[in-house]
Amino acid sequence: MKVMLITGASRGIGAATAQLAAENGFAVAVNFHRSREAAERLVVGITDRGGKAVAIRADASREEEIRHLFEETTRQLDRLDCLVNNAGILERQMRLDEMEVDRLHRVFTTNITGPFLCAREAVRRMSTKYGGYGGTIVNVSSLAAKTGAPNEYVDYAASKGALDSLTMGLAREVAAEGIRVNGVRPAFIHTDIHAQGGEPGRIERLKDSIPLKRGGTAREVAEAILWLASDKSSYSTGTFIDVTGGR
Ligand code: NAD
Description:
By secondary structure, the chain is of the alpha/beta class. The chain has a single domain, classed as Rossmann fold, CATH 3.40.50.720. 45% of the residues lie in helices and 15% in strands. A seven-stranded parallel sheet has the order 3-2-1-4-5-6-7, sandwiched between helices. Helix 1 (12-23) packs across helix 8, helix 3 packs parallel to helix 4 and helix 4 packs parallel to helix 6 (154-174). Residues 7-8, 10-14, 31, 33, 59-61, 86-90, 110, 114, 140, 142, 186, 188-189, 191-193, 218 line the site of nicotinamide-adenine-dinucleotide (NAD). Residues 7-8, 10-14, 31, 33, 59-61, 86-90, 110, 114, 140, 142, 186, 188-189, 191-193, 218 line the site of nicotinamide-adenine-dinucleotide. Pfam families: adh_short_C2. This is SDR family oxidoreductase. Keywords: Oxidoreductase.
């Protein structure tokens, strides 16, 4: 049974990915930071349907906790085949000239330092160079990496741009060691990440700017993640799937 570790998986895109991966025969490590109850509910839902899943607490942006997360994953599920770097934060809509440096540190620590360190742990376990069987890494980026998100959150966009560079560089670095690295770039997906609010009417304007005229679902992003994580995408590395409703 292949094992997938998903960071920030207690809700939203991460939870949908855990659910879909379990339906497709993966054993799943559901990482959560604060929402133990939600993560455990998800695990029970999966195991009740005959799947295999465990919930593991860790702040996926801190080196020591990330090390613990990977050790626990392989201790409880025996191996690691796929990492989904999903945990991410988006702060309130704001221009750069109003942003404090603390915000920049929070966003970059979660959205790029965390995925970087998780990828490092994954490579140390998956690489044939270290005796591993190979594997896949999927980084959950954002369309904002390409647009820059002016007047909204250039900090977030820059962190996701950095994540895309990591995806492309690492893909080439570890391709010969059996590891494929790809990314998904969602645009507007209905999840709690938008709960921090913004200008009145922003969500309606956002939907209107999408050719398919609706926000996406977490499940629709999970489908792309699963394809990149699985052997179905065996000839793709260093590439991205935009899940944007045509935006
Ligand atoms: P969400 O807020 O529902 O989920 C994010 C999850 O990450 C939460 O469970 C949160 O607890 C977790 N998390 C945050 N910091 C963490 C940390 N340090 N350690 C462990 N977990 C942590 O939002 P979502 O939309 O499901 O977001 C998932 C990913 O998708 C994020 O990387 C986000 O940037 C990306 N994304 C979302 C959208 C969208 O419109 N929803 C668009 C583009 C990209």
